[in-house]
Write a structure and sequence with these properties.
elongated; 7 helices; alpha+beta
């Protein structure tokens, strides 16, 4: 396992993605919001150093129990995820984060009491973490291509019926105590907050599908938000 450091430019974040994450959907924000967004982007790009890490492992999927066993650790991933992982020959566990520098910038914005910048940064931070995870998937796919393998979607504790408390088990599998500098609170919150973690199925016969939001009732899922067309009042 090794940590991969990214530059902000490698994430290829578009303004339209930021506006969508802010709740504008396909609409355009006003000129003031555009100026504030572009100004904040310059600050973010100058300090942000996203990171990701992953490792591959064998495991056993127990369909009837809706569990995934990795060595002596059992994850109760639930019905939705266990079905999506069917056919996996191995598994990749990962973390990705916007990084400590980005979180420090968020704290600074709060001290400056810039409400607009705080909101933009919150939306942008979520995008950075997910884009870092996208970069992780690209590296992962290159690594497994020699085996003729593909990979599934990525699935995280707290989504699709997988309880967030199992974040503790997931982090215990990593060789590093705080992978990519991420630590867990007692309530399984990741710090820096703009971080993601989870599992991906690997194998010859697995597929990456569109996220099946119709099967899940978690209204706060970031994937579900991406499909809403909400405009801020």
């Amino acid at each position: 396992m090794e940590e991969h450091k990214l530059s902000f430019e490698e994430l290829h974040i578009s303004l339209s993605e930021i506006y969508e994450a802010m709740g504008y959907g396909s609409a355009e924000p006003d000129e003031g919001v555009k100026r504030e967004t572009q100004k904040l982007l310059l600050r973010v790009a100058s300090v942000t150093r996203p990171l990701f890490s992953f490792f591959l492992t064998e495991g056993e999927l127990l369909l009837e129990k809706e569990e995934l066993e990795i060595s002596k650790t059992t994850f109760q991933v639930g019905r939705i995820i266990v079905r999506q992982l069917r056919g996996s020959q191995a598994y990749a566990f990962f973390v990705a984060t916007a990084g400590q520098e980005f979180e420090q910038l968020q704290h600074l914005l709060k001290e400056e009491d810039d409400i607009v910048a705080i909101y933009i940064a919150d939306s942008l931070g979520s995008i950075i973490a997910e884009k870092a995870a996208d970069c992780m998937e690209e590296v992962l796919q290159r690594e497994i291509a020699c085996k003729g393998w593909k990979h599934t979607n990525r699935f995280s504790p707290g989504y699709c019926g997988w309880h967030v408390s199992e974040q503790q088990k997931l982090f215990s599998l990593f060789p590093a105590f705080h992978p990519c500098g991420i630590r867990l609170t007692d309530s399984s919150l990741m710090l820096p907050i703009k971080s993601v973690s989870g599992v991906i199925g690997l194998g010859e016969h697995v597929r990456k599908l569109e996220y099946t939001c119709g099967l899940c009732n978690y209204e706060k899922c970031y994937r579900r938000k991406q499909r809403k067309d909400v405009v801020l009042a």
